[in-house]
Each structure stands twice: as structure tokens, then as C-alpha cells.
């Protein structure tokens, strides 16, 4: 109905891509790019199609070279619901040798004695993404609800920590001084929906790779989880120091009987 809308053609290309109609999706993405040459996501899709599905590396390389002029770098994102173990993962990555973007404004406390490793400007991500230039090549923590506001100009490797919902809510109750009190079923459902939306977001953003970790697995199957992290990051990490950053004594509010 409104032909001159590049995003409409991009979303048509997405639909055709998921239907495995790669030739038609290419036409839609290329039309979107004619209208909006800086629509990076469309060009990323073309690289993926040519490289992984049509096996035409020469065409993929053409688009890759154009992308290299626009893309600004790669950022590792640690995310998850509150009290899911994101701070521990940040500590592990820092111990492993990755640079962390943090201002240490939020100091360690009894709920998180090893620190939160947060960066205050992240809270304003919806309105201001300029700080991400500082995050290139580094790790930064971003809460679940803000992931969708990450701009297209960067490639993101997202490590998302999942944890049993009852443990998350129990930990939150304890943190606000209401340990032992019942928690809202609607809040649990809202949190679960947020996790579902993250999966939808990650699958539709071509500049996003995501690794899901389970908090309990990181605690009790540490070696294997660290290997997964190292493989995902694609860099040599100090795995021994990463393991030292995992403190099973801080796994409170647990449901399982493991020790």
C-alpha cells in the first residue's frame, strides 16, 4: 500500500527468509537497501543468505566489505532477569581477561559482595546509545528490558543467564527485606514473558548472536559452561581464573539439594 517504505520491504524479506524462499527474500532486502542504504540489517541478511544458504561467498564478500564501512565494532553483552547471576558472569569474564565497561557506582553489598559491575549510562539506553562507542571490544551488562534498544551499528554477542523463576523471586524478596513472603504470580508471568521476548528479539536481529546459560549449571558444571563461553566469545580466556570467580557459597535461595 505504501511502496516507498524500506522497513516494510525488510520485514517482507525476513518473512521470505524464514519461509526459505531465499531468492525472493534477496529481492526484498535489495529493494529495501535501494531506499535506505544504511539499513544494516538488510545487508547482514544478504551476507547470511549468500554465505550460509546459497553458498556464494563472492557475493557475500561484496556485502561484507560494504558493511565494514558502517559497522562500528563488536560488543559482548551480559543479560538476564534481576538476581539471575549476571553479576557473577561479569566477574567470570573479567577474571578470564576480558575488559569490562563499568563505573562501579553501584558498590558491593551483602546481596552481592563481589560487586555488580554495572555501567550507569546503560539505564538510559532507550534514549541515548552514544556510550556504546566506549563498549566496543568490551563486556557490558544490559538488563533484559533494554536489549531491544541496542542499535544496529554493532555486532553483539549476548550471554543470557537463566535461573529458576522461584529462586529469582525469592532472592528479590530477600533483597528488599521481604524474605519468606509470598510473591506475585503476575510478576513471575511477566518475567517469563520478558525471557520469551528476548528469544524473539535475538532470532530476528541478524547482528545478534546469543548464548543461553543456566545459573545452576554454571555453579555445578562450571568447567563445561566455561568451555561454552570461551567457544562463543571466540577468544583465549583464562579458564582457571574464571572458575575461581564462581562461588557456590553465594548460591542462596536455591531449590535443589546439590552441594
Description:
- The protein contains eleven helices and four strands; from the N terminus they run H-H-H-H-E-H-H-E-E-H-H-E-H-H-H.
- The protein is globular.
- It has 259 residues and is α/β, with parallel strands linked by helices.
- The termini are far apart.
- The longest helix has 20 residues, at 185-204.
- It has a four-stranded parallel sheet, with helices on both faces.
> Helicity range of the residues?
40-55%
Largest sheet: 4 strands, parallel
Structural class: alpha/beta
**Average pLDDT rating:** 91
How would you spell out the order of helices and strands? Answer: HHHHEHHEEHHEHHH
Order of strands across the widest beta sheet?
A: 2-1-3-4
Poorly predicted ranges: none
Oligomer: single chain
- Strand tally is 4
> How much of the sequence is in beta strands?
5-15%
Large-scale geometry = globular
Radius of gyration: 20 Å
Distance between the termini: 61 Å
Number of helices: 11
Question: What is shown here, in short?
Answer:
By secondary structure, the chain is α/β, with parallel strands linked by helices. Helices cover 47% and strands 10% of the residues. It is globular, with a radius of gyration of 20 Å.
Q: What's the arrangement of secondary structure elements?
A:
Layout: H1 6-18, H2 22-35, H3 40-53, H4 57-68, E1 73-80, H5 86-96, H6 132-135, E2 139-141, E3 154-162, H7 165-175, H8 185-204, E4 208-214, H9 215-220, H10 222-233, H11 239-244
Helix pairs in contact: 1-2, 1-3, 2-3, 3-4
Key terms:
259 residues; alpha/beta; 4-stranded parallel β-sheet; 10% strand
